[in-house]
Structures are given as structure tokens and as C-alpha cells.
Specification:
alpha+beta
């Protein structure tokens, strides 16, 4: 690898990291308490080959597409939904040019608790709502996420999955979690010693 090529790659990584940092800073400083999904016919994926591979992995495990969506409140975010009726699971692919590409597999239970297994690049340090278990497997494949769900999900029956209700359920789940965080004063983070740190929402919606 030539020195010029190495410098070019290093520069690209630095620039990408800078814009990713700016995106996260803006997102956290202006908490979005509600979102609305709108269907999109031809999504502009940031990495179409990778997205296609993820979609095929979902389908191979019995998931049916529930549609592709844009989110007005979070520009450039594209969401692709999937439903597995037999296994009573919901799948989500997220794609944002700065935040990256990742997938969630979600199980909703009859008692309104839930399980989420994700390979999201961030979020592990956040506290989560009671009775809504989340496992983060950063860098793991979809197949590994699926096996994890089968291993840790509850034995009792789960809530019904319906691709026609994907949007409304997704929006309601987001709203519920953000309301919980706002009532606590904002995102709280766990530390290795068991204590918690907090960043509070001001009345203006900014992080203090």
C-alpha cells in the first residue's frame, strides 16, 4: 500500500468519524420524543450490497418484508421492517450514512415486556426500560443474533406479529421508551462500579 493511498484512507476515516460525531451530538442535544414512518418505494441505501445480504438473511429465517420506510424526524435514516409470524418475531434493519447499518430482532410478549437482540454499534452503556431486555452483539452476524434470540427468549407465548401494524407498533415502542427516558431526566448510563450517570433534558430539549 502506497503512502499516498494510506494517507487518503486515513483522511476518509477521520472525516467520517468527525461527521458521525456531529450527527450524534446533534441527535442527543435535540431529543426526538416521537417519530413517524413513511413508506419509501426506492430507498437510497448507503451500502446496497450489505443491505441486500441482510434482507436475504431475514428471509432465509422465515421473515417476510413489512416495507421500507423513511423517518422525517431523523433525516437520512432508512428502516426496513420484517415479520416472522411462525416464530413471533419482528426484524428491523437500520441504515444511516453516519450512524451505520445494523439489525434488531425483537420479541413482544403478551405481558407487554419484550426482548431485543441487536448488533448496533452503540447503545450498550445506556440503561433500559424495566422488563424490556436488550442484548448487544456488536459486529455479530444476523445468524448469530437469531440464534441468541432462540436461546434467551421466554418459554411462554409471545404477542402476535402483524406486518400491517409494523409502523404503528414501531412508533409506539419508540414513543414509550423516549417518554420513559424524559421522565427520568434524560439518558442514564451504567458505570463499571454500578453507579449511574445522567444527562438531563432541559426545557428547551437540549442536553445539560
Amino acid at each position: 500500500m502506497t503512502s499516498l493511498l494510506l494517507l487518503s484512507i486515513t483522511g476518509i476515516i477521520a472525516i467520517t468519524g468527525y461527521f458521525a460525531f456531529r450527527f450524534l451530538k446533534i441527535f442527543l442535544s435535540r431529543p426526538i420524543l416521537e417519530i413517524s414512518l413513511s413508506p419509501v418505494v426506492k430507498p437510497k441505501w448507503s451500502d446496497e450490497i450489505r443491505i441486500t445480504g441482510l434482507m436475504n438473511s431475514f428471509k432465509q429465517k422465515g421473515f417476510e418484508p413489512a416495507g421500507d420506510f423513511e423517518c422525517r424526524e431523523i433525516p437520512s435514516l432508512i428502516i426496513s421492517g420484517f415479520i416472522n409470524t411462525r416464530e413471533q418475531m419482528t426484524g428491523v434493519i437500520y441504515d444511516h450514512p453516519f450512524a451505520g447499518i445494523w439489525a434488531d430482532i425483537i420479541v413482544q410478549y403478551h405481558d407487554k415486556s419484550s426482548l431485543t437482540v441487536s448488533n448496533a454499534p452503540a447503545g450498550q452503556s445506556l440503561d433500559h426500560m424495566p422488563h424490556h431486555a436488550k442484548y448487544y452483539m456488536k459486529g455479530n452476524s444476523f445468524e448469530e443474533l437469531f440464534e441468541k434470540v432462540l436461546h434467551v427468549r421466554k418459554d411462554e407465548g409471545t404477542g402476535h406479529s402483524d406486518k400491517r401494524r409494523f409502523c404503528s407498533i414501531f412508533e409506539a415502542s419508540y414513543r414509550e421508551e423516549m417518554k420513559w427516558r424524559a421522565e427520568r431526566g434524560g439518558p442514564t448510563y451504567g458505570k463499571s462500579n454500578g453507579s449511574r450517570t445522567k444527562r438531563g433534558f432541559q426545557r428547551t430539549g437540549k442536553i445539560s
